[in-house]
Design brief:
By secondary structure, the chain is of the alpha+beta class. It has three helices and four strands; from the N terminus they run E-H-E-E-H-H-E.
């Protein structure tokens, strides 16, 4: 498994707020399944940072394709990179 950091920039705040409950339910499912390590919006609500625990980038792209935020077209990907966790150590 590999950790991936995803930084998003929100592009449509009104539509995002409509879809947010479904998005958060989806994230909760991913967390329970061990696929989501951490997630949350930035303080100014301009975007978010999510850390996924997946086999590879292809699996992450599949997860993103199923996210309600993707279907609603409310974000742009700023950064998607494999992330090496240093602290706390596992």
């Amino acid at each position: 498994m590999a950790l991936f950091a995803l930084q998003l920039k929100f592009t449509d705040q009104d539509r995002r707020m409509e879809v947010r409950p479904a998005h958060r339910d989806y994230l909760a499912e991913l967390y329970d399944a061990g696929k989501l390590h951490a997630a949350g919006p930035f303080g100014d609500q301009s975007g978010a940072l999510l850390i996924y625990d997946v086999a590879d980038e292809a699996e992450l792209r599949e997860i993103l394709a199923d996210d309600p935020y993707t279907a609603a077209d409310v974000y742009e990907i700023v950064t998607l990179q494999e992330w090496l966790k240093l602290f706390p150590s596992a």
